[in-house]
Amino acid sequence: MSDPIPVLTAELPRVVRWAGALARQLRRHDIALGGKTSGFSDTDALTLADLSVQELLVAALRDMGPAVRGCRIEAEETTGDLGRFADRSEWALGIDPIDGTREYRDRTGNRYSVMLHARTAETIRYSMVYLPEEGPEGTWLEVRDDRIVLGPDDHARPARTVLDALPPITADQPRNSRRILVSGFQGRDAERAQAVSAAGLEGVLGNDTPGSLFPLVANGYLGGALFHTPNVYDFPVCMHLARVLGGDVIRAHDGRRVDFREMWRDERANMFRLPGIVACAADRRVVTTLVEVARGWSTDRYSR
């Protein structure tokens, strides 16, 4: 099939900006929904905005033509004209319509984002993250080929023009490679972060960081992440960043490089995840340390 990346890079920015505007507006209203019952608050948070933003994104992708409709859609929610896309394809489009739904719903911060990435079974090829309320008019993060850009939106100019004008982030810029976000350990995040710190790194929790994971990895505040069974809708963007910055992503339990040939369905949360504990960092030496720390930990997400 045709490479969808040229179409996505040309058409997606304005659509994601529209989706961000919708999310900002809906947030002013009572939009909380039920329906997710994994038992964990971050996973179970759901709003009308999640469904509405995904509906908009899927419709726009559908209308971008055969190169995009030839992709599989892997989306965190089930809304939208998903039947128009391929059931089987070498390309997958991962959508997280509102990453950070609990904070978005509870109005406790502005770190939420609209996210989409394109990948093959081997690796991630394109990532876009838009944070509608970070900065006066929003903040962009885009990863394509070896180019990472992060910076403010400007609604006076077309979205693609804004992205093209942002200066690229380089792998050799100063960054704190030792600070690692630890997440997904179901009530044991603090304990696992302490183990990371004991190994000479700095394990931190999400609530202790000043923003979303993805821009913090891009700008060097975070060196990477150690996640238990991360989902395939948002975490791949962290993987993409780490690899473009010169690092890697490794499964702690067997030392294998992470790809998307093996996933599992989390029936409790109704989503697909990568198996085991995943060490992701922009510095390969840090990846090695994380793998050594977590190698013996349980790979069962819901074990105690």
Keywords:
7-stranded mixed beta sheet, Fructose-1,6-Bisphosphatase, Chain A, domain 1, 5-stranded mixed beta sheet
Verbal overview:
The chain is α+β, with helices and mostly antiparallel strands and 304 residues long. The chain has two domains: 5-169, 2-Layer Sandwich (Fructose-1,6-Bisphosphatase, Chain A, domain 1), CATH 3.30.540; 179-294, D-Maltodextrin-Binding Protein, domain 2, CATH 3.40.190.80. Helices cover 32% and strands 24% of the residues. It is built from ten helices and 16 strands. Helix 7 links the parallel strand 10 and strand 11 (202-204). The protein starts with a helix and ends in a 10-residue tail after the last helix.
A few lines on this structure:
The protein is α+β, with helices and mostly antiparallel strands and 304 residues long. Helices cover 32% and strands 24% of the residues.
Order of helices and strands: HEHEHHEEHEEEEHEEHEHEHEEEEH
Shape: globular
Q: Which residues sit in consecutive blocks of at least 5 with pLDDT less than 50?
A: 36-45
Strand content: 15-25%
Arithmetic mean of pLDDT: 93
The CATH superfamily of the largest domain turns out to be Fructose-1,6-Bisphosphatase, subunit A, domain 1
Q: What is the terminal-to-terminal distance?
A: 44 Å
What's the tally of helices?
Answer: 10
In CATH, the architecture of the largest domain is: 2-Layer Sandwich
- Total strands: the figure is 16
Q: What is Rg?
A: 18 Å
Structural class: alpha+beta
Instruction: Give the biggest sheet.
Output: 7 strands, mixed
Strand order of the largest sheet: 3-4-5-6-7-8-9
Q: What is the domain total for the residues?
A: 2
Indicate the CATH topology of the largest domain.
Fructose-1,6-Bisphosphatase, Chain A, domain 1
Percentage of residues in helical conformation: 25-40%
What is the level 1 CATH name of the largest domain?
A: Alpha Beta
